[in-house]
Design goal:
The chain has three domains: 299 residues, Thrombin, subunit H, CATH 2.40.10.120; 94 residues, Pdz3 Domain (Roll), CATH 2.30.42; 90 residues, Pdz3 Domain. It is of the alpha+beta class and 513 residues long. The two termini are 33 Å apart. The strands form five sheets. Strands 24, 25, 26, 27, 28, 29 and 30 form a seven-stranded antiparallel β-sheet that branches. The longest helix has 14 residues. The relative contact order is 0.11.
């Protein structure tokens, strides 16, 4: 298998549409370069007096050399091998559709830049293909725990890390979280790795930031800039709250750390917005506060559990606020409380507006989702709810987010019987129980972003009428039809799906649960 040049065409096509996530990767032949990043050293000494003085006076430091010399030993290169049978084959197959909207995926990124090795003619993967990828990460403890992006190590058959001094170690995946795109890996056999820690305080707009990573597989590289914005929602996941920076972040920097002037990690490099594939000064980092919470759970349990209300919500627009006589367009409006959820049991109804959680105002629907997601299942919360024009307090106990658990290095994900469709990545409810859905079929109440159904266009609000040739009216009917398909040796199942404008059939592969 011959290597291919990693030099892109002179005039590459536009690869990222507005609000599309660009995972930062680069390829040489069959190499997929992806980087991982992690927390900042909790024992770093103070920086030089001149740099400190410049920081406190609001001026830029004379240079970043002292900072870089302290944090760079904690930043690592992450190299993975991904067998096409490890789940990535389905992703590559999906990319063969020239009309599919996959401009933000690594595979489409590689194709549009003329790189090869992601499939044969028509996008069909070569048999027995092994893809190698190289990226970045950073140690967060002296005993070898390191942070990177989920998309760097997802489906990895093996993981190796290279430290700043060139030493290569074998690593294992401790746990991953797709919803925040974070992963925790571990290198065994040594107790004195250089490491960094996460910042305790959020960065401010205008603060200096230094990004360290491994762009294009070149080895440790440093760029500098400022924090441009906070709280960015780029449509990458349900809990988007990105820090935007203008320090150049290039292909291959995924998972690399961004440091403040005290040597603390303020974010994990994850995505860029770019019309060309290179840095244009708009990069997005997972905030340190989010990373700390996720990493702590991954280290403790190997997977993430989140609090769950069980409601579909939408923002309160100015028109909605006006129609309800509200002074401000704030809060999260409930579209539908899921049957049997904590919200439904507490009496929350469609049309209610959740205005605060434990006394803290809710700005919008995404703010509510982020607030609840950081709470543990079983937590008692007090909500302020606007119900038919009247404010009322509601106290309830949070459940556990369905389909939220992630397996550890073994890769096996436990099924979620409550969701009813562990093999498709869907949560369902009988159509008869959802207002406006009709009497036939089951309604899709949520879709796992990286599940088989999502990859084939099934969306929240769709109604599934038929599974494998059998009409369905309940979650049990769907489960039974999927079980029959699997027992008959089928690798995919045909769904009849009714959307807002039409009814269509969709063949969805049966993922191994």
């Amino acid at each position: 298998m011959s290597d291919q040049s990693n030099t892109p065409p002179t005039t590459p096509r536009r690869i990222f549409r507005p609000r599309r996530l660009a995972l930062l990767a680069s390829v040489a032949g069959l190499s997929m370069a992806v980087l991982a990043a992690g927390p900042v050293a909790n024992y770093l000494p103070a920086w030089t007096a001149s740099a400190h003085a410049a920081e406190t006076t609001g001026q830029g430091p004379a240079g970043f050399a002292d900072l870089v010399s302290k944090v760079k030993p904690a930043v690592i290169s992450v190299r993975v091998k991904i067998d096409e049978d490890g789940g990535n084959a389905a992703v590559m197959q999906r990319d063969s559709d020239e009309n599919s909207d996959q401009s933000g995926s690594p595979e489409q990124f590689f194709r549009q830049f003329g790189f090869r090795g992601f499939g044969g003619p028509g996008g069909v993967p070569h048999q027995h293909q092994v893809i190698t990828g190289e990226g970045s990460g950073f140690f967060i403890s002296p005993d070898g725990y390191a942070v990177t992006n989920n998309h760097v190590v997802d489906h990895a058959k093996s993981v190796q890390v290279t430290t700043d001094d060139g030493t290569v170690y074998t690593a294992k995946v401790v746990g991953t979280d797709q919803k925040t795109d974070l992963a925790l890996i571990k290198v065994d056999g040594k107790k004195d790795f250089s490491y960094v820690k996460f910042a305790d305080q959020p960065s401010r707009i205008g603060d200096w930031v230094v990004a360290v990573g491994n762009p294009f597989g070149l080895g440790g590289t440093v760029t500098a800039g400022i924090v441009s914005a906070r709280g960015r929602d780029i449509g990458a996941g349900p809990y988007d709250d990105y820090v935007q920076i203008d320090a150049p972040i290039n292909k291959g920097n995924s998972g690399g750390p961004a440091f403040d002037m005290n040597g603390n990690v303020i974010g994990v490099n994850t995505a860029i917005y770019s019309p060309s594939g290179g840095s244009v000064g708009i990069g997005f980092d997972i905030p340190a506060a989010t990373a700390k919470l996720v990493v702590a759970q991954l280290k403790d349990k190997g997977y993430i559990t989140r609090g769950w209300l069980g409601v579909q919500v939408q923002p309160v627009t100015a028109d909605i606020a006006d129609s309800l006589g509200l002074k401000q367009a704030r809060g999260a409006m409930v579209d539908n409380p899921q049957s049997g959820s904590p919200a439904a049991k507490a009496g929350i109804e469609a049309g209610d507006i959740i205005t605060s959680v434990n006394g803290t105002d809710v700005k919008d629907s995404r703010d509510l989702a982020r607030t609840i997601s950081v709470m543990a299942p079983g937590t008692s919360v007090k909500l302020d709810v606007l119900h038919k024009g009247e404010s009322k307090p509601v106290t309830l106990t949070l459940g556990e987010m369905p389909n939220d658990r992630r397996a550890n290095a073994g890769g096996e994900q436990p099924s979620n019987e409550a969701a009813g469709t562990p093999h498709l990545g869907l949560s369902l409810a009988p159509a008869s129980e959802v207002q406006g859905a009709g009497e036939k079929g089951v309604v899709v109440t949520s879709v796992e972003p990286d599940g088989p159904a999502a990859e084939h266009g099934v969306k929240t609000g769709d109604v599934i009428l038929n599974v494998g040739g059998k009409p369905v009216a309940s979650v049990g009917d769907v489960r039974s039809a999927l079980s029959d398909a699997g027992s008959n040796g089928k690798h995919s199942v045909l769904l009849q799906v009714k959307s807002a404008d039409a009814t269509r059939f969709v063949a969805v592969p049966l993922a191994k649960g």
